[in-house]
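Example: UDP-glucuronate 4-epimerase.
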Amino acid sequence: MKFSKGLLQMKHIDNIPSTPGKFKMEKSPYIHRLRWHSSLAKLTLWSFVFLGLIYFFFYRSPSSFSPRPTDLSRRSLRTNFYGGPAWEKQVRSSARVRSRNGISVLVTGAAGFVGTHVSAALKRRGDGVLGLDSFNDYYDPSLKRARQALLERSGIYIVDGDINDVSLLKKLFDIVAFTHVMHLAAQAGVRYALENPSSYVHSNIAGLVSVLEVCKSVNPQPSIVWASSSSVYGLNTKVPFSERDRTDQPASLYAATKKAGEEIAHTYNHIYGLSLTGLRFFTVYGPWGRPDMAYFFFTRDILKGKSITIFEAANHGTVARDFTYIDDIVKGCLAALDTAEKSTGSGGKKKGPAQLRVYNLGNTSPVPVSDLVSILERLLKVKAKRLIMKLPRNGDVQFTHANISLAKRELGYKPTTDLQTGLKKFVRWYLSYYGNGKRSVQ
Ligand SMILES: O=C(O)[C@H]1O[C@H](OP(=O)(O)OP(=O)(O)OC[C@H]2O[C@@H](n3ccc(=O)[nH]c3=O)[C@H](O)[C@@H]2O)[C@H](O)[C@@H](O)[C@@H]1O
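Written out as structure tokens, the predicted fold is:
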């Protein structure tokens, strides 16, 4: 946004001729030269002023807190100053373990959908939890702030910062020797990658590397569980998707960055002995969910009487998802944390082989998107205005279906919520959150 405004201003400057009448024949060539020289001087002066301003704003301003965000198009160049005894006390208190054998977890993306639920569940068990979130505006930040308020009530503090801010991450580890990192901060969404590709690189690649860089250098190294995605299966046609299947044909940049994350995890495990577990989430839904997801905005639009677009594949083929309820996902996340072995490195050096795992966390029962809409119609008691559209080539795949036998065997993962039951809980939350008219649905 800021960038386009800047571009607009630049266009505006370009449209005003800096030397009006420059090419008109003057009566006196002397006067012409004089004017030309003074115009040239003015132009040079203004160019210096303009360049100086650019230098000041982009390089010298205090907002270029290290490292500088690479995604200037959406995220603000914002400065957050951390520190001070009161701030450190808050951090320490939030991360304090309150149960025997409890773990202390840094949850990145704690104000996100999955992050909020996982943080709350860890805190309920007596684990120490500190959140980190950039509160970016990919979707309505007020929903993130409401989740933050919810967590604050149970004593969870969320630091407002970016995972690319290595000095902040180091500071957090200086204050608390986290045993685990639950890394959920990411640029989510499949279709948005067409609009803002750099945000995926910023969060899912650069951000992941900065988290791993800090984790590998601290002592003791934490164990890391992080969010991969079912989208890594890309254009695969063999179902259900098993962890052993190929993942080298992503259909979206989002999927490609998650796949890259899995390879990056391999590298940090191999070189530094970091214990790493990637969880391939399958279309997670539920209360406090993400407004950019179909089940969420279908609900909003059905209630508003607006038409919704339902994708279908070629030859009226069904588009389906292995929709997975948030509580099942939370159980999978906690089980992954609980079964994570310790990292083996210290002082940035590997001391022995470390655990490297990847699990599917799905529901194992794909549901066509048109059935999802029928369930919503029944729950909302409103008929949807359906527009059927051919699946655009925007990153979406036709179907997903998880084979969860590995997670079942090794994590004791067993999803128990079907789509009908899960959506009922979502709709109840949705109506209580937005339904009283106090909040606008964005
Ligand atoms: O499983 C995953 O790994 C991914 O799940 C979701 O991605 P997606 O399954 O595409 O979820 P939605 O965007 O909510 O779409 C659900 C279904 O609705 C369909 N859809 C979406 C939008 C629309 O207007 N119409 C429509 O029919 C999509 O094609 C898809 O089949 C999340 O958005 C990703 O962040 C996540 O990583």
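Residues 188-190, 229-231, 281-283, 293-294, 309-311, 319, 321, 369, 396, 400 surround uridine-5'-diphosphate-glucuronic acid (CB under 6 Å).
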